[in-house]
């Protein structure tokens, strides 16, 4: 382990380690802001560029292509365990910023007025608009950087908080990420009305991500200082070598497999739903874009409170495996209620926020109990790649289901079948959570024990 300190180091100072969390939390908030910033703009993209439901789903899902099909999150995790936090983090946050700028450029007048790349994009795949293609390229690059940078930030949290308030720190980190999402749903509908044109909403998001690169550079200075204080032991350089057995060992670990499958199904029922949620409320409850955006942001806002709270409880009392079961069950019930009832979407989104706090607050710190810290980047990277299979397939499938079950141009759009799909994913997540808890009794990782007892 990389923690054989004799003297006190930076991470022993409560203020410094929480300040580090705020720095990387800013990077994460920018990442989540950009991911969600275009979701409230679905109808605007249809109006401006003729996006169909499927085009919009394609735009959302292209984020995951580098992580699923090029295994970027896995390679990113391996690169991270080998090259370390600073170099890997800088590289992938820079990718994220570049991708965000390319997306904004693709939606801009500068590009549509025969800007760089317009002629080329017009010449390939003529069935799709040049704007969509440039925006797809941007989101692809953004996704390539964004997922690995989340892996890097997860490793940063483990580095500063393991053996201390780990689950609480993960909870706060996720809370900061969700503030990014909530801000996106709040600000984007306002920014599209700005005098500088509707694309201000996308440019603002792109500059937010770019500013996070500067914040990451500040973090790097503290990281360097900590590494100088906490000298690695002699075995580290050898153990930093990646071996294929690092992956095969993970695949032989049943607890890890169940938690990965839970991650896939649970998140597939949340993020793709969330991306369509503003449009769903608008259609189901006949609301304005601003009203529906405000309902959507109740879920991330709820998680800002609940995720750190549940993280604190997991640190203190344990029960992570049990809470993952409850979280999956609540998620399923909320989606069924969305599909078949007209219960208040305000209440349901808050309840969804509780489910979306229970599982992440328990899941991510639990992985640190199953996997050695030196391999945590590889483990999170692997989970993210598998999860991205869902983040790729389900937005696309939602768009296809919507186009298939609705008549083009006829409003309101009916989301019932898509909601049933999300509820089914919730049921699968519930089953994997049960299996994980059963397996924990055999493996002895102690997922239901408090954080400092392992
Ligand atoms: N920004 C939306 C996609 C993030 C996915 C990421 N791989 C993840 O799972 N993050 C953890 C979380 O709970 O947000």
Automatic annotation (TrEMBL):
The keyword ATP-binding does not apply. Pfam families: MFS_1. It is found in: Lysosome membrane. It is a multi-pass membrane protein. The chain crosses the membrane at residues 15-35, 55-78, 90-108, 136-154, 166-188, 200-222, 256-275, 295-314, 321-340, 346-364, 376-395, 415-436. GO terms for cellular component: lysosomal membrane. Its main location: membrane. GO terms for molecular function: transmembrane transporter activity. Residues 17-441 form the Major facilitator superfamily (MFS) profile domain. The keyword Transferase does not apply. InterPro entries: MFS (IPR011701), MFS_dom (IPR020846), MFS_trans_sf (IPR036259), MFSD1 (IPR052187). SUPFAM superfamilies: MFS general substrate transporter. Keywords: Lysosome, Membrane, Transmembrane, Transmembrane helix, Transport. It catalyses: L-lysyl-L-alanine(out) = L-lysyl-L-alanine(in); L-histidyl-L-alpha-amino acid(out) = L-histidyl-L-alpha-amino acid(in); L-lysyl-L-lysine(out) = L-lysyl-L-lysine(in); L-alpha-aminoacyl-L-histidine(out) = L-alpha-aminoacyl-L-histidine(in). Lysosomal dipeptide uniporter that selectively exports lysine, arginine or histidine-containing dipeptides with a net positive charge from the lysosome lumen into the cytosol. Could play a role in a specific type of protein O-glycosylation indirectly regulating macrophages migration and tissue invasion. Also essential for liver homeostasis. Homodimer. Interacts with lysosomal protein GLMP (via lumenal domain); the interaction starts while both proteins are still in the endoplasmic reticulum and is required for stabilization of MFSD1 in lysosomes but has no direct effect on its targeting to lysosomes or transporter activity. Belongs to the major facilitator superfamily. This is Lysosomal dipeptide transporter MFSD1. It comes from Labilibaculum antarcticum.
